[in-house]
Amino acid sequence: MATFLYKLGRLAFRRRRFVALLWVALLTLAGVGAATAPSAGSTSFSIPGTEAQRAFDLLDERFPGMSADGGTARVVFKAPEGEKMTDAANKASVEETVKELGTGSEVASVTDPYQSQAVSQDGTVAYLQVSYDVPGMELKESSREALNEAAQHARDDGLTVDVGGDALQAAAEAGVGEIIGIAIAAVVLVITLGSLVAAGLPLLTAIIGVGIGVATITALANALDLGSTTSTLAAMIGLAVGIDYALFIVSRYRAELAEGRDREEAIGRATGTAGSAVVFAGLTVVIALAGLSVVGVPMLTKMGVAAAGTVVIAVLIALTMIPALLGYAGKKVQPVGAKGKRFGRRKAATPESQGQQAKPNMGTRWASFVVRRPVAVLLLGIVGLGAVAVPATSLELGLPDDGSQPTSTTQRRAYDLLSEGFGPGFNGPLMLVVDAGASADPQAAATKVGDEIKGLKDVVTVTPATPNKAGDTFIITVIPDSKPSSTQTEDLVHSIRDVGAGIKADTDAEVLVTGTTAMNIDFSQKLNDALIPYLGLVVGLAFLLLILVFRSILVPLKAALGFLLSVLAALGAVVAVFQWGWLSGVIGVEETGPIMAMMPIFMVGVVFGLAMDYEVFLVTRMREAYVHGEKPTQAVVTGFRHGARVVTAAAIIMMAVFAGFITSSESMVKMIGFGLAIAVFFDAFVVRMAIVPAVLALLGDKAWWLPKWLDRALPNVDVEGEGLRTQDDAPENADESDEAGEDKDEELVRA
């Protein structure tokens, strides 16, 4: 691997004009494709294999004109104090609104509150429902404007009017924090690399990579049914890993220059060593993201595969475009004050220069401290993360509805008005689809379903069964007594399904429960059922990959266990902020509630991939030192001496990029941004920087143990660049300088 990448880096360096033009051409091609492609609508949300989805599919088949997946809006009216919605003036205003909304080009139907009995018992609240021919996200802006204008006309008549439903949904707005995140990344790069040119290269290549990835997703969005969240996720992860991967190669290139190698040789060696780590780190992220396909939810599969494709682009750009641009940069990648260094062979090192080179940096001092007190550091890290993970035991899963919107929105006010007038369960009605085609008496079977459901606990209303034209399928609406996201409503769904099983045995009529609330329950259950198999697949594949990289059993095992600590602590922090409300004002969380159902499995996938990034980058330097003859604790210190500064910068950059998405208007993006940012903090600074060196110090030589039979069976990927030693053209006395630094490390460890 190292030898192949060494040759690739040198080739890209020599053919830099061709390589740079190739990537610019790909960016242009993707941009043109995105600009000319038809605009994408909303991503169709389906959960194959669930009862709620089967019911929706049956509705499309048996009630073809119903537009079961069409957008809906509820316009809720409240009478002024002391008046009722049945008063003549108020009734006239509502009927005018019904008439006005009925003229919309995308409107399928509008219900009249006075004909559909949609007036509360006390007469103060009424609502009408607008059904559209197309999904809410695909509505024309003119339809949304017409809806808001009709509501405003009723307000002008003195009524309180608010609008809920998915018809008001729009694409998430990007937050200014995303730009701030990139700005922070730029500052960190300048501080770390000490050169504007060197700092600019990772930013430039990452932006080009994300541009190609997002433009490609946009170009294919209509054909592949990709939503706006797909490109947001791809941009979030692609930008973070793109900067990090380029940073590691640029940093290694500068280190090779400092050893006195010429520019072409230095970029070859940087690509061969740091590039190998980039390849395997990228593979772990791709495995984690593409592995989301095992969940069986098309939306998650598309998000994961699209993000994985952006990571692949980031890896390829780091391996080819970075060497090409370094060829153009010349000596400008060196820190300020270091431009006088020669790129050729150095003169013999003097004692003074040796002392300067051996001066321990902060990474060396920290690693020396950890390997002297490994037990204390290990216990402190585990106990600290365990304490942060405690809130995860109270994790409540769900999907957002209008009840989770900020109280300042019209959707939330409409939700509260409906709860006030008709009860909390009115916002989450359950739709029962009765397939009675196999029954001897379909109507009697449907009536039996309604009668038995009425006797269940937590049921307020059961509407009469409505048949289709063929008379073999019926729709029954059930209004629960509890709000949609409550455990009582979930229990009611399970109770109805139990009743349905008994009815099927008696009448051969199948009862299916669907609707938004039932769909959310089935979605959460499907994700919970898939979590363990997904975790086993992703961790298992990555474990095998890391055995190949590190040629060790215990190092990959330690990496996987450290990841579990990181993700549990991150989930605990998410629960504390988004469910309990701790620091919610600081994060900008206006309304707390259940954690998004996809959050745990999504965090497991993404955080695992990113956690393995730092594991590969940091531990490969330790492995490289150990293979080249250093003692285990000395190798740990050497790995930190070379890699801690860059890994720290990479983690801060990734945290800044993810944290920038917290300002998004989309609640899912906000939660994901916070979760990933805090997970990177825990994993990079607690697990990889503290727990990992402590464990390796305690294990000693055992950390790098591998059974002889497995050692013979595994191919040698040579991540540490052992094969490049045969091509070594290092300057005379350079090894003496390294030995001086290693001796200093040993002294620090013993201190």
Structure characterization notes:
This protein is α+β, with helices and mostly antiparallel strands. It has four domains: 185 residues, Up-down Bundle (Multidrug efflux transporter AcrB transmembrane fold), CATH 1.20.1640; 103 residues, Alpha-Beta Plaits; 228 residues, Multidrug efflux transporter AcrB transmembrane domain (Multidrug efflux transporter AcrB transmembrane fold, Up-down Bundle), CATH 1.20.1640; 86 residues, Alpha-Beta Plaits (2-Layer Sandwich), CATH 3.30.70.100. Helix content is 63%, strand content 7%. It has 24 helices and eleven strands. The strands form three sheets. Strands 6, 7, 8, 9 and 10 form a five-stranded antiparallel β-sheet that branches. A four-stranded antiparallel β-sheet has the order 2-3-1-4, with helices on both faces. It has a two-stranded parallel ribbon with strand order 5-11. Strand 8 and strand 9 form a beta hairpin. Helix 7 packs antiparallel against helix 10, helix 13 packs antiparallel against helix 22 and helix 17 packs antiparallel against helix 18. The longest helix has 35 residues. About 5% of the residues have low confidence.
